[in-house]
Amino acid sequence: MTSVPPAPEEDTANFDYLEIANMELRRAIISEWQQTMSTAALTTVVCAVCARDTNISSIVFVKPRKVDFALLCNPLLPDNLQPSSYNRVAYGGAILHPKGLTNIDGLGDLRICKECRSDLARPRMPRFALANWLYYGLEKLPNSVSDAFRRATPVERILVSRARASKISYKFSELPGHVMYKKPAVTSQRCVKGNIAIHPQDTTSFNEVLPPSAESIRDTVCAVFVGQTKPDLQTIRQLTPILVRKSRVRIMIEFLVAHNPHYRVGETFKGFSKSNLDNLFGPGTQGVDEDVLCSMEIGHIGRSDGVEGATSSYIPGQEDGPAKDEEGVLMENVGYTDNDDTPVNYRRMTMVALAHCLADGRFLKVQAGSKLIPDFRNPNLLSWLFPHLDPWGIGGFHKHERFTPLTMAQQLKYLLSVHDSPFRKDPDFAFVYYNILQKKAVYDSVTFRVSGHERESVVQQLLKVDVVVLNRLIAAFKENPHYKCKNAEESSILKLLLKVNAVSHDLPGSNGYKIALRNQIRGLINDEGTPTLFITLNPSDRDHPLVRLYAGDEIVLEDAMQGEELSRWKRTIYAAENPAACAKFFDTMMTNFISTVLRYGRSGRGLFG
Question: How far apart are CA 16 and CA 1, in angstroms?
């Protein structure tokens, strides 16, 4: 009788991660999470030098005698723009943020972040100091102008901007569950919510006069209504986000022309156009101050199961409206990026990159007069695109007078970190400049490769390419990827491009970058095995009080967790008005989950192994 050998013992080492965390580990994770997410750990303080909201652990109190205030002065800033919200003379003329001072009436201790403190000790001006042309003088605006910029609707801001880099679409929807649903339009405006979709443009468009012409406005903004019935003019006139007030537009334009050097009348800019202002609402409306633009396209989509399925959400209370005593139309912002570098568009991408090089690194917008408008290193562009954020024209990107140079990425990150900064609340500033950064990254990372024996010949031919014809080809291939050349000049350019390979390095956000990450995931699965547990996190910026803390409210997280005093509608409006605080909240939640709950990169196991 043959004996059967015993089965080998199963190697359980590979299954250690399936072991359920014991109570001691769970309690340790909960305790650490509570400490990490506490008010004491997350409270921010304003740095007097750079005005950034800084974690309290990175703030030091500095005696004034230890600060060289000469390093924090900007003698080039006009006297009428120097800050007056504190005793500037007591602080040696330094440009500081009053919330970083312990005494605004006289000399006192300063709260300074460790980064700025390190630079001052060297000694040198901190690169993010307000004195480094990062002070925008908003407090020095006349009251009427400040009020106009603050109250301006998104459409009014379009009318006072010299340049535009995006197109905006509005969608207004009825809220079916609301108490005022299907009531007369005059009395049911509280049951309307809206979305703003911000679409990038390939090039920056330039306005020769302000307000711009009707044709320019028609290409920039539109509105769509979703509901049971088609809205009438009376209904449309009650939706404040798309209304325009001529008197407010005129105040802003006249101020910019008189005080902003980037809006100075000259060969390329003719200034204020009274005729365009008078005709904003159509012929014969010169005496009407507030209405809807006659040139704005307005459409209607009937409510149906298909529309509901395409626009529905699983978030609880997403369709809630305001209570009877609450006002406001909720406008949620959605931004789109423009980096579709799929193989279908490879030929167009190559042509765009070549056109960029031949145009000396600029974006070409062919209009009347064929103006060149540089996107990347243009100190005027910020004020051209967002005059309400830089009304005096003193804080643009790549400003030549800046004492310590900053890259666009550095300044953009800084502006979104400044305490109570209007840049943090603007609905399309971050979207527009993210797209500009992405375009810059594309052109910085693209290189051309050709066969060695053809190099000299190809280079000479590339330098002779007609940029006008090349840009015409780019537009044609964008409209029709299967475009056929119409003349010998176009055919010769395409034949030349067949000899050139465009090679791009890793570009975050591009399709190639996403494919590379997916390949990494596939490699991990092949090496480590398929995932055993999938986790989905949905941090709710609307419901978590941390958003209010990051937006500047003085609250105690531990108390607020017990129950919000704000209604769900007010919390929704608050989150929509503070996009930067919501983004910071999401990053905090995800980072702490990975570090505290998963304990990734730390010794010992986390909750899931």
Answer: 39
